[in-house]
Amino acid sequence: MFTLPQKDFSAPTTCLGPTCLQDLGSSHGDDLEGECSRKLDQKLPELPGVGDSAMLSPDTSYLSSRGRMIKWFWDSAEEGYRTYHMDEYDENKNPSLSQSDMQRVEPSLLQYADWRGHLFLREEVAKFLSFYCKSPAPLRPENVVVLNGGASLFSALATVLCEAGEAFLIPTPYYGAITQHVCLYGNVRLACVYLDSEVTGLDTRPFQLTVEKLEMALREAHSEGVKVKGLILINPQNPLGDIYSPEELQEYLVFAKRHKLHVIVDEVYMLSVFEESAGYRSVLSLERLPDPQRTHVMWATSKDFGMSGLRFGTLYTENQDVATAVASLCRYHGLSGLVQYQMAQLLRDRDWINQVYLPENHARLKAAHTYVSEELRALGIPFLSRGAGFFIWVDLRKYLPKGTFEEEMLLWRRFLDNRVLLSFGKAFECKEPGWFRFVFSDQAHRLCLGEQPAFPAQPSLWLLLVCPHPPGHQCQLAPHFPFPGMQRVRQVLAGKSQVAEDPPSSQSQEPSDQRR
Predict the structure, then answer these.
(1) Could you read off the pLDDT of 2-60 as tens digits, one per residue?
(2) Does residue 301 form part of some domain?
(3) What is the DSSP string of 222-269?
(4) Could you tell me if 208 and 331 lie in one domain?
């Protein structure tokens, strides 16, 4: 039993800045910006009764000061309980604490477990990732931490890797919820690497990330007095659907090593690549990571298995300091024992995943994607598509007369009023107004409405739903009754299609070769 010191240990007010929360009121932004110029106090508090600050692992240079504090609680305060749990007394099964078959599944699931996750689950995760990531050597369960979803992973990593006010580089457009996970939770900023739809220089595709652009964004952050601690990569990318080639991944990782940056690789869509020609490779498949101690890989079941409500995410990192610090935060972000058991059962069922689930899921995704792609082509709308994920990045710039974000919001509102829920580009920090993310995935029974159109009198908001039939199938619904989602898209755009000229020869048309 110990107590924290009475001295003030409240977190300092820090700046999230325009690169993180652009929509905050200006008065708040001014106050927070002023705080950014203050040097953060790096001194760790004394903890009476358990030792002094020298015990707080000063050599764990990969962690922020609060990360070292979090890890310290694991190393010291939790040590006794961990030792007890490894060989817990049981009057029936383990009276002498020596039997090897002491564990019973049901009781153990109802007790506190290793905060990294039950060993049986971490072993299954390691095997699962080894197989599907095609790692050159088996991945190890001691490098696995399980949390309640990808959001918690981002929040925990931001907290243990960065001081408040420091930043991650992140290419745009990117999944906008990361702003909440990183900025609002950990007071960590996002320094955007802005990418363009126009293909220039040595680029071969729209919105292409290059090392040169990373270097430029890093220099800009430094010029503004922002310390950058890491780089966030999403592969396959959301919302672009882009897939980084192994060569590109190596270049980004070498860049990060050169600047001693952590790299968080979010691979939450790795099993949702439905075009074989896309050539997806996990970062864990690379023969040699340039800086394995600063490379941290995320995956979750929310997308690939359509189980976002179950809240399961996993981190794989060879850095034991980072793994331990994140695991300590699992006190707030852990999974129940019952969920861990269910997840282990799912992940070990390789036959069902390989022979039933993935083939069927990929076929449905491809059919849905094909339907929406053909509809967009018929409307003359440019779009990007790489054969991965649940979405298409669509160029609606010609429907914005002045090309402003205000018009983008108005167009989004028109879609919403017609009960079509899309995501507008500003939410992904796209610097060009007029780009929208169309989601095309949904359950089959919601997609096929039968012989007659069936619109409820007060329908709820529709996602962009699509015909689930395979390519080449002549859907009886489509010729006479256009699919509800696309029908409503047509209705919205019909009222706006003549108000603006088409943009100059767009470079954002679907590329002819999807392999990189």
Answers:
(1) 222 333 333 333 333 333 433 333 333 333 233 333 333 434 444 333 334 444 555 66
(2) yes
(3) HHTTPPEEEEEEESS-TTT-----HHHHHHHHHHHHHTT-EEEEE-TT
(4) yes
